[in-house]
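Section 5: illustrative case.
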């Protein structure tokens, strides 16, 4: 009898591990789908894009091309943040991510914004994956910050998110207003997340 109970326990544990793995794989696939949703307004402009004027703070922020790797690390940060989230919350995370990206994509289509990118050795790679549109609100900031708020107990998540947010300014991919907009979207989404529990 003892070995049968142990066998059932092992099977149950294995099933739970598979379920956890599948939930996280689904959320990672959701991120991939959202990337392609983002590409629609990034590649297709229905209306003329508005170029934001620099504020005084933007003019004091220097362009540091060496921070591009930090900016690109966003694509590694997001999967790690997703994997760190509790399995019980994975389904809700997918819903919130999908809704947030879709709503921002619609906003980008209706109210497109652009920015004058400085020339650098990273410009070719950057243009390949991200045209100079969809600036306001910054999706780098909104999605990274929202997932970091869900992982706020992890110091590495807070530090990484902070560096990415700053890199949007030091690479001149966004202005301060874009970062504020992204932070506002993340804060509202996090508020709705807490209200939906």
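Designed sequence:
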């Amino acid at each position: 009898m003892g070995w049968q109970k142990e066998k059932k326990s092992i099977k149950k544990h294995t099933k739970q591990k598979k379920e956890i793995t599948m939930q996280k794989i689904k959320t990672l696939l959701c991120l991939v789908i959202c990337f392609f949703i983002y590409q629609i307004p990034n590649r297709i402009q229905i209306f003329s894009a508005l170029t934001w004027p620099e504020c005084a703070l933007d003019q004091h922020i220097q362009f540091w091309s060496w921070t591009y790797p930090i900016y690109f690390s966003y694509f590694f940060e997001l999967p790690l943040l997703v994997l760190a989230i509790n399995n019980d919350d994975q389904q809700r995370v997918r819903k919130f991510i999908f809704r947030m990206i879709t709503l921002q994509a619609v906003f980008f289509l209706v109210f497109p914004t652009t920015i004058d990118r400085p020339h650098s050795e990273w410009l070719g790679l950057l243009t390949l994956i991200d045209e100079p549109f969809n600036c306001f609100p910054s999706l780098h900031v909104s999605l990274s910050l929202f997932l970091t708020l869900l992982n706020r107990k992890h110091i590495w998540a807070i530090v990484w998110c902070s560096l990415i947010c700053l890199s949007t300014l030091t690479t001149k991919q966004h202005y301060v207003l874009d970062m504020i907009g992204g932070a506002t979207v993340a804060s509202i989404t996090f508020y709705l997340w807490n209200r939906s529990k």
